[in-house]
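Example record

The entry below shows one chain as it appears in the dataset: sequence first, then structure tokens.
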Amino acid sequence: MTADPTDGPPARRGRPGYDAATVLARSVELFNAQGYDATSMSDLAAHLGLTKSAIYHHVDGKESLLRAALDDALDALEAALLEAATADDLTAEERLRAVVRRSVRVLVDHQPTVTLLLRVRGNSAVEQAALARRRDIDHRLTALVAAAVADGALRDDLEPDLVSRLLFGTVNSLVEWYRPGGPVTGEVLADTLTSLVFDGLARR
């Protein structure tokens, strides 16, 4: 018996049109919702509406998705730090302000992957590598704070390491409540946080 040409092509399994970027974005969504360690490839397949083999067409496995997500957040944070820290026409305080503003923008623009980054605990080689990159960022931020103190722009009665941890801990806490698309834009958020923080840190 021959097939009826009006029957059309056989139905495809899963949802057509997913590319690697979409698979990553939807996977990060699930990692943040129920935890990376608690998420299986079967969970990802169900969340994406794909077969596991279709996911493997895009990625090598769950760990490669985690690596790509953490790299997205860390690459953006490192770029923000490098851009501000190497600006020759800025004072040390202006560099620090610029890093704070750019860090807020990174959080707004990369909120899902930054959220995932802030939740890793070093349970795998991928997570340990990400934490090492975070520590390097922290050290460079502390150096920026120390430079601004040395220039006389910031209070010298506070430890630069503590200031850096509190300052960027405040930035990181935004992932818990900020929602893009709401009444507060990323620009307003960056302006407000920068003003509040540096008014308190200004040397008098």
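Notes for this example: The chain is about 65% helix and 0% strand. Confidence is low (pLDDT under 50) at residues 1-16.
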